[in-house]
Design goal:
Elements (H helix, E strand, L loop, with lengths): L6 H11 L1 E2 L6 H32 L22 E2 H14 L10 H9 L17
Antiparallel strand pairs: 1-2
Helix pairs in contact: 1-4, 3-4
Amino acid sequence: MKRFLTPQEKKVLRYEKDRRNTVAESRSLSRKAIATRKTLASRSLRHAQNVATARSAVVLDEADPVVRKTGKNSWQKIPDAPLADYVGRTLKFRSLKGMNAPQQMSVLLRKARRNLVPRPKRFKGPLQNDME
């Protein structure tokens, strides 16, 4: 028989699995921006190939058979921040600014932050400074 999760276990799982966009874009705009950036990277690669082909057509003796991959790897997706990191940084930022009294981090939030897989984090705005 299936074991049901307690509300505390569900909360820890949400802290670990849920993500927040910290690159200062809304969710819908970031989906559009991903497609746009990939398109621009591919376009710059095609442009570099066209320029290299045109140069080799003009000067056949000095033609470089290898086209440099400029622009192909110029943009990469950045994973969103885990909710546990986002909430922890937000609470710490609020307490440093005096917006609310310094609180103890909840046991569930601490447990979720311990279980996170370490990844490079990118925060924009007031959360970008490492406050730990």
